[in-house]
């Protein structure tokens, strides 16, 4: 029967003193007090908070929904049909989930707000991304955009968003 191997001693990069394996009687590492969230919940909470902040700071909206609520549109600019399709579809689903979650919040209902989405397929192409950005800029009640996935597309589209104060 073999004896278990003991981890080798390692020199500390700061003081040069040898550092041995962890003592068995030492205190356990402290764990975070916050509950763990899934990535989908984190994305939904972040996008909902962003939507609320953008929506509430916007100048106004239309009375588009049948219940008289004020509608705010959040653009989703991401590759859907070409380029980084899997990532783009993930961004789209995450943003739509966040909007659906935000619309279920009682605070949003009490304020008479309804969030909707407008999706633009930028195809991972900066030229197409600029076209999508111009399309979003002409969308009534647009309060913000989630995207773009590719940095080259984001850089090209940001010029349009900056000009239009989006």
Can you put this structure into words, describing what you see?
Mean pLDDT is 77; it is low at 56-64. The longest helix is centred in the middle third of the chain and has 20 residues, at 85-104. The chain contains 5 helices and 5 strands. Strand 1 and strand 2 form a beta hairpin. It is flat, with a radius of gyration of 24 Å. Helix content is 42%, strand content 17%. Strands 4-3-5 form a 3-stranded parallel sheet. The chain has a two-stranded antiparallel ribbon with strand order 1-2. Helix 1 crosses helix 2 and helix 4 runs parallel beside helix 5. By secondary structure, it is α/β, with parallel strands linked by helices.
List the helices and strands and how they pair.
Elements: E1 10-11, E2 18-19, H1 39-57, E3 70-78, H2 85-104, H3 106-111, E4 113-121, H4 126-137, E5 142-147, H5 151-163
Parallel strand pairs: 3-4, 3-5
Antiparallel strand pairs: 1-2
Helix pairs in contact: 1-2, 4-5
Give a brief outline of the structure.
By secondary structure, the protein is an alpha/beta fold. 42% of the residues lie in helices and 17% in strands. The protein has 5 helices and 5 strands.
Query: How would a textbook summarize the main sheet?
Result: 3 strands, parallel
Number of helices: 5
Strand % is 15-25%
End-to-end CA span = 69 Å
**Strand segment tally:** 5
Q: What would you call the shape? A: flat
Q: What is the rounded Rg?
A: 24 Å
Mean pLDDT: 77
Helix/strand/pairing class, anyone?
alpha/beta
Q: Could you give the order of strands across the largest sheet?
A: 4-3-5
Query: Which spans have pLDDT < 50 for at least 5 consecutive residues?
Result: 56-64
